[in-house]
Amino acid sequence: MKYKIFGQTGLRVSELCLGTMTFGEEWGTGNNKQESRKVFDAFIEQGGNFFDTANRYTEGTSEKWLGEFVGSDRDQYIIATKYSLFDDSEDLNAAGNSRKNAMRSVEGSLKRLNTDYIDILWVHAWDFTTAPEIVMRTLNDLISSGKVHYIGISDAPAWILTRCNSLAQQYGLNAFTALQTEYSLIERTAESELLAAANYFNMAVTAWSPLGAGLLTGKYLKKETGRLSEKSVKMNDRNLNIAREVVKIADQTGSTPPQVALAWIMKQNQQYFPIIGARNKAQLTDNLGAVDVMLNDADWEILNELSAFEQPFPHNFLNREATKKNLLGHRHEELEL
Asked: How far apart are CA 47 and CA 138, in angstroms?
């Protein structure tokens, strides 16, 4: 694997991030400890050094096992974890974006990970009950304490991201340096606002569900079973047609569908880092092969066109030819924008 600078952080991270939500069997979709270790070892053997977990994943087992696997080599790896989701169903304040929960949750993560610091702490999701000012002051204090190095935001509206980073700039606080969002060939709507905001602030982006919950592997085209049921909103003609094209390109290039889907994300922007997960070493090895897939411009454009989505207002209005003429003049096509 190659390494990239992660946004403006200065961190050197592998171009693929290993998601560890499959470390642990508590949720019925993960691995036992032995298989999880094999996945971890296979990732670092190929140069991987970037891991994503959360306080909530597999009821804490994900963080605990990741900490054990990293062991005394802690400083060699970049570990990102999250707070916001509940980890104590009996405690009303053991959830959300509040200062109380952030401090409590980070202490729990540090213990489970058996580390003194977290490289990147994500706000897992926006709760709409905590003021942005409080969130940013709290995260700044965690950085000042040395327990957290950088902060990121996940699963939040673009206006929240913009508000928070503007507050940080105004008051001299640490800003969000990265965005985590769902992003794949079948889910590109983040491009309208979220990715545009991230690009404006020079943020790195980690993409979760880059294989569309498995749909882009092509297995549902073969009537295989998986996480998605036939009633899933993702199981529609548009998405299945995209999956067919991914399979076609994979066959033509001697690669696999997951590799093509991941390569498409990395070609979209050098600061987009897919989060890959695996139930076993074979799956992981296949996904890691994406770093060697070079999509040609023709295949890339076909995938872009096939996966294009209807832009919401005001983008659909502002992109109309008539609107451009009114805004930029009838000779707007001559402008270098």
From this structure: 34
